[in-house]
């Protein structure tokens, strides 16, 4: 039977096992986002109190990093993820890892580069609330992932720009050239499933976080136009203006992967991207997403799906 998700009201370690092992140690690694957690062996059998502490840290630091989780396999990763929420299908259009319906192999095939800033599956009406990513095979150098704090980006806006952003909505879609134009055969073949089903969703540019109440910018590479603006240049200029606030270095953290590393991030308050500086060296990471809710604007309206199977949230590469 699936384990019950731990309520946020559980704030104290309530297990003899957890007391014996001590609480997780959380060490920030950047000023506005990111922390390393030590003293935890991730599994589906973690005490409820430890799970609650981990989730509290996710909400506080946006992305957490765990070293040396070599014991995890795809099934174990899913079982741990299930303690934090309900796993989604691996992806709305891409096939899952063989034998594991909730796991997406985030590999970088020739000609395919997931190196644009994005929030996972923001082209769906209910993007995942969080993602759990495990390093399986990584290059000895290069191939880092960078995350940005979209709540800090909103807080850093001048008041006048916040007022503009609060009123804007953007159209997010998976219909665009995600694979670079120079892609050869392998890249083109990998692109085909991405556009088999077209998703289009109108999201508020500013969403209210359902657990913390914070406001965060919801943009990234899947945001292609501002709703209600007919002039393409004006639309792109507005998106670029707010997106550049998200990706300011002060709002980011960069992680160099080692096999066995695990990252967990709040998909409702972050964007991320890979740094594609590792050439043709192999890189494979396994990701599990957790089902989320429809984003809500500052005036209480929910996101509106235009096209695509609205009931199939998933993950974007």
From TrEMBL:
The keyword Oxidoreductase applies. Its cofactor is Fe(2+). Keywords: Dioxygenase, Iron, Metal-binding, Oxidoreductase. Coiled coil: none annotated. SUPFAM superfamilies: Clavaminate synthase-like. Residues 26-288 form the TauD/TfdA-like domain. It comes from the Bacteria. Residues 294-317 are annotated as: Disordered. GO terms for molecular function: dioxygenase activity. This is TauD/TfdA family dioxygenase. It comes from Actinomadura miaoliensis.
């Amino acid at each position: 039977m699936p384990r019950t998700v731990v309520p946020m009201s559980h704030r104290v370690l309530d297990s003899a096992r957890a007391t014996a092992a001590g609480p997780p140690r959380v060490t920030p690694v950047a000023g506005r986002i990111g922390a390393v957690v030590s003293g935890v062996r991730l599994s589906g059998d973690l005490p409820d109190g430890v799970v609650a502490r981990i989730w509290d840290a996710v909400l506080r630091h946006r992305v957490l990093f765990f070293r040396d989780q070599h014991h995890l396999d795809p099934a174990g990763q899913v079982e741990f993820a299930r303690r934090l929420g309900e796993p989604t299908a691996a992806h709305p259009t891409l096939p899952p890892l063989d034998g594991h319906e909730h796991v997406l192999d985030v590999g970088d095939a020739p000609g395919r580069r997931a190196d644009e800033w994005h929030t996972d599956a923001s082209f769906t009406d209910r993007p995942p609330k969080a993602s759990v990513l495990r390093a399986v095979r990584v290059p000895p150098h290069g191939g880092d992932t960078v995350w940005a704090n979209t709540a800090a980006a909103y807080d850093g806006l001048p008041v006048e720009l916040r007022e503009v952003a609060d009123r804007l909505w953007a159209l997010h879609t998976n219909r665009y050239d995600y694979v670079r134009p120079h892609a050869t055969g392998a890249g083109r073949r990998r692109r085909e499933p991405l556009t088999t089903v077209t998703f289009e969703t109108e999201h508020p540019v500013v969403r209210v976080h359902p657990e913390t109440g914070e406001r965060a910018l919801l943009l990234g590479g899947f945001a292609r136009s501002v709703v209600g603006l007919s002039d393409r240049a004006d639309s792109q200029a507005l998106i670029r203006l707010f997106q550049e606030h998200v990706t300011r270095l002060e709002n980011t953290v960069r992680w160099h992967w080692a096999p066995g590393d695990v990252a967990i991030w709040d998909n409702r308050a972050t964007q991320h991207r890979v740094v594609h500086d590792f050439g043709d060296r192999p890189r494979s990471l396994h990701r599990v997403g957790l089902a989320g809710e429809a984003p809500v604007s500052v005036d209480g309206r929910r996101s509106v799906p235009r096209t695509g199977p609205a009931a199939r949230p998933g993950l974007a590469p």
